[in-house]
């Protein structure tokens, strides 16, 4: 019984991930499909706000894995393969890795053109939530 309890405690708990922009951005909402298109380089415009520059969390981070699994249906390995193909064919470059939720929030808060995703607990008045991913 104790072993089962310890196993349960070792499983990762998935928090809510939110897509954010600067509080100064004119964007107001984003669908999962629009988020997928932005972060996979299929679109570079943020509805209601013009050009958008997406930033990623560090490769392998739980927040990044959860974000891409929910909005694009891709695992970390599938995402890596996708970007390898895009780069090789000259069709695009992946978003810049910005680090963890705190680093992404800092970048996003300072520039109304940057869009990122963070653990919901990182949100404060400097950023605006466009999409909550559960």
Notes on the protein architecture:
With 134 residues, the chain is α/β, with parallel strands linked by helices. It has a single domain (15-133), classed as D-Maltodextrin-Binding Protein, domain 2. It is built from five helices and seven strands; from the N terminus they run αβαβββααβαββ. The protein has helices at 2-10, 32-39, 62-71, 76-88, 101-109; strands spanning 17-22, 45-46, 50-51, 53-56, 96-97, 114-119, 127-133. The strands form two sheets. The chain has a five-stranded mixed sheet, with helices on both faces. It starts with a helix and ends with a strand. 31% of the residues are buried. Residues 1-11 have low confidence and may be disordered.
Largest sheet: 5 strands, mixed
Helices and strands, in order, run as: HEHEEEHHEHEE
Strand percentage: 15-25%
Tell me, briefly, the overall form.
globular
């Amino acid at each position: 019984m104790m072993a089962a309890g310890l196993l349960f405690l070792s499983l990762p708990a998935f928090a809510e991930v939110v897509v954010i922009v600067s509080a100064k951005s004119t964007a107001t909402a984003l669908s999962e499909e629009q988020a997928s298109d932005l972060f996979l380089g299929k679109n570079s415009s943020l509805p209601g706000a013009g050009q958008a520059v997406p930033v990623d969390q560090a490769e392998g981070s739980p927040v990044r894995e959860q974000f891409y699994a929910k909005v694009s249906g891709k695992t970390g390995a599938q995402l890596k393969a996708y970007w390898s193909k895009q780069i090789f064919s000259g069709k695009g470059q992946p978003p810049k890795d910005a680090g963890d939720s705190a680093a992404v929030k800092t970048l996003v808060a300072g520039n109304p053109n940057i869009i990122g995703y963070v653990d919901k607990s990182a949100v404060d008045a400097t950023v605006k939530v466009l999409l909550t991913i559960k």
